DNA sequence: GGTCACACAGTTTTT
DNA sequence: CTGTGTGACC
């Protein structure tokens, strides 16, 4: 058995204070690299081991499945040090750790009927939502030209995030466009009900509604979850905030962890002010700052601090470290985006080939937009350096995967007209064969068997030419889907997993490097949150790109861009390279923009300017 | 019913 | 520039 001392060992004083804090609301403000996850998992372990809190009375909420899995693994190690894999352990000994959405889906499957939600509801992702909106527009005789489905969807989604329902929306609608949206919103809701579907936003909104209208259901959960720990609290939206308040209501043992300076998801409804106003929600809130950084050099931290301090609307933590000062932050002015890519490739090559102090996996390149990855990829391919690209089209957004899923979704829910539309689009004849097959088929097949039989009867795979490389990648993706199906023989479970758990990216994202995970990492600054690398390049630091042109006009948005740059900078452990191009080809357009204002906010004595001549 | 061509939009992203 | 999606035509 682990003793108390070993849970607290290797924790600094504020971390220990956070871990051992007793009853009542607790806010942990944790800067980048300050051991945030460590504090959270150790606190959960401490409650279980030292305070004898049964694991089932603890709830851990995160925003991504990745974060939830990470928590589980680390908690597992703390509780049963000899076991390394979550799967190999009786999960009953672990608290529920999951995303807000998966938690809500569970609640609604179980109790949703109380507010008219069928237990077998289908979950709509963004593209399903878009199709449902299109169907709504057609039904109401609105032109898609006048009302872009994506814009309408965005507005409705925002409303849902703020807990404004379709019946409430009309009273907030201003101007003709919003009044149109109000009408569409109502019709869209009606359609979802008919189709027995909930969109992602509904999972949160309906759960809050359920808890409001059925206090006895809420009481169940309140009683069960004596301790609630929430990660990345600055990313909560209004619905998640309300849900938190409901769940915490009885015991008031909320432990929220976050950092306003790392709030980068405002564009999708997150409101970092939830973090700042927690003090008003709980007058007895205890706040603990984690400001010692274990990741970066002092130079990197000082540069990042100076830069983020220009933000006026939220407090900024003062990070410090016992690591040394390290090298200055390097700044490279490139002639073009190609020159910029070459500079990076050369630098990586120098560090890994000529003087192999680092491996390619030690490097990350962070950019503002996905479109920037192409030039970088080309340079890496050219130089024969291994890389891995993070992001791109998500696995379940791929056409071939959505096609397969449409058949399966319709199989469990024939009300789902969005799925049916897709089935028809794949091919009318295929649709007929599929329907005929569905009628005579006994419903109790395993997911994999069913999927295979559908693929067989519809001859879906014949759409692909195994000679073509892109088609081959698609076939590989379907293979991957089959392997997911193997893990979830129950079709309903399978679909739930597919809707709420993102799969590793499909094969066409993978190049030779990925197999062994040995390449240089290429990703957006957003995708980099939560990661760290010895050497980080942040590229494209030009006005209009980073900060992005769509953010230039609003102060709030500029501040979010600045936080994003802060996140990017603080990924670096030992060396940080910044770069910008005097001229850049962007969407086929030659552009020329001044250096990003963010770089100007870094004190020059922390910077080192790199010339081309220095490269040789 | 299926294929091909043209128009057009194109931050960031998880669930 | 490039991927996607709609509409016209075979």
Describe this structure in words.
By secondary structure, the chain is an alpha/beta fold. The chain has four domains: 13-105 and 205-290, P-loop containing nucleotide triphosphate hydrolases (Rossmann fold, 3-Layer(aba) Sandwich); 122-195, Arc Repressor Mutant, subunit A (Orthogonal Bundle), CATH 1.10.10; 298-386 and 518-610, 3-Layer(aba) Sandwich (Rossmann fold), CATH 3.40.50.300; 396-505, PCRA, domain 4 (Orthogonal Bundle). Helices cover 46% and strands 13% of the residues. It contains 25 helices and 17 strands. The protein has a seven-stranded parallel sheet with strand order 11-12-10-13-14-9-17, sandwiched between helices. Strands 3-2-6-7-1-8 form a six-stranded parallel sheet, sandwiched between helices. It has a two-stranded parallel sheet with strand order 4-5. α14 packs antiparallel against α23. The chain starts with a helix and ends with a helix. Mean pLDDT is 90; it is low at 506-515. The structure holds a DNA duplex (15 and 10 nucleotides). GO terms for molecular function: 3'-5' DNA helicase activity; ATP binding; ATP hydrolysis activity; DNA binding. Residues 298-530 form the UvrD-like helicase C-terminal domain. It comes from Candidatus Shapirobacteria bacterium CG10_big_fil_rev_8_21_14_0_10_48_15. ATP binds at residues 30-37.
């Amino acid at each position: 058995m682990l003793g108390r001392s070993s849970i607290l060992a290797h924790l600094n004083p504020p971390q220990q204070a956070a871990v051992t804090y007793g009853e009542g609301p607790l806010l942990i403000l944790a800067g980048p690299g300050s051991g945030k996850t460590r504090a959270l998992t150790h606190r959960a372990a401490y409650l279980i081991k030292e305070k004898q809190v049964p694991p089932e009375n603890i709830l851990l909420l995160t925003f991504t499945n990745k974060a939830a899995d990470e928590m589980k693994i680390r908690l597992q190690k703390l509780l049963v040090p000899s076991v390394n894999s979550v799967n190999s352990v009786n999960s009953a000994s672990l608290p529920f750790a999951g995303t807000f959405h998966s938690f809500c889906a569970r609640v609604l499957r179980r109790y949703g009927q109380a507010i008219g939600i069928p237990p077998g509801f289908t979950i709509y992702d963004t593209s399903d939502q878009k199709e449902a909106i299109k169907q709504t527009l057609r039904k109401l005789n609105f032109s898609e030209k006048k009302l872009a489905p994506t814009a309408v969807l965005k507005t409705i989604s925002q409303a849902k995030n703020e807990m404004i329902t379709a019946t409430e929306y009309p009273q907030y609608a201003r101007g003709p466009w919003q009044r149109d949206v109000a009408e569409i919103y109502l019709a869209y809701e009606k359609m979802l009900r008919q189709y027995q579907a909930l969109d992602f936003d509904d999972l949160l909104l309906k759960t809050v509604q359920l808890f409001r209208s059925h206090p006895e259901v809420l009481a169940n959960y309140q009683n069960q979850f004596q301790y609630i720990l929430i990660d990345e609290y600055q990313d909560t939206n209004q619905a998640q905030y309300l849900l938190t308040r409901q769940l915490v209501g009885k015991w008031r043992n909320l432990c929220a962890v976050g950092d306003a300076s790392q709030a980068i998801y405002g564009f999708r409804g997150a409101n970092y002010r939830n973090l700042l106003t927690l003090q008003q929600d709980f007058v007895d809130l205890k706040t603990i700052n984690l400001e010692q950084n274990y990741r970066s050099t002092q130079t990197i931290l000082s540069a990042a601090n100076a830069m983020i301090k220009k933000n006026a609307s939220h407090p900024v933590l003062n990070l410090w470290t016992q690591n040394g000062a390290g090298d200055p932050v390097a700044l490279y002015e490139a002639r073009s985006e190609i020159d910029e890519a070459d500079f990076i490739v050369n630098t990586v090559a120098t560090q890994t080939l000529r003087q192999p102090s680092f491996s390619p996996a030690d490097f990350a390149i962070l950019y503002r937009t996905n479109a920037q990855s192409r030039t970088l990829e080309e340079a890496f391919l050219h130089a024969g350096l291994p890389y891995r690209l993070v992001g791109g089209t998500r696995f379940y957004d791929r056409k071939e995967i959505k096609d397969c899923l449409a058949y399966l979704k319709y199989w469990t829910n024939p009300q789902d007209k969005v799925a049916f539309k897709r089935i028809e689009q794949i091919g009318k004849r295929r649709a007929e064969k599929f329907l005929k097959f569905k009628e005579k088929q006994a419903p109790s097949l395993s997911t994999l068997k069913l999927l295979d039989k559908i693929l067989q009867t519809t001859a879906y795979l014949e759409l692909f030419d195994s000679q073509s490389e892109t088609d081959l990648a698609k076939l590989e993706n379907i293979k991957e889907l089959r392997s997911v199906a193997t893990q979830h023989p129950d079709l309903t479970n399978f679909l739930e997993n597919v809707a709420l758990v993102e799969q590793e990216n499909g094969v066409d994202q993978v190049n030779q490097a990925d197999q062994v995970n040995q390449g240089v990492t290429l990703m957006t600054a957003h995708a980099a949150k939560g990661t760290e690398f010895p050497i980080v390049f942040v590229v494209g630091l030009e006005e209009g790109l980073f900060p992005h042109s769509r953010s230039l006009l609003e102060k709030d948005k500029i501040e979010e861009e600045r936080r994003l740059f802060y996140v990017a900078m603080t990924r670096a452990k030992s060396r940080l390279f910044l770069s910008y191009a005097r001229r850049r080809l962007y969407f086929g357009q030659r552009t020329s923009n001044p250096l990003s204002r963010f770089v100007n906010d870094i004190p020059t004595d922390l910077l080192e300017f790199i010339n081309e001549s220095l490269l040789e």
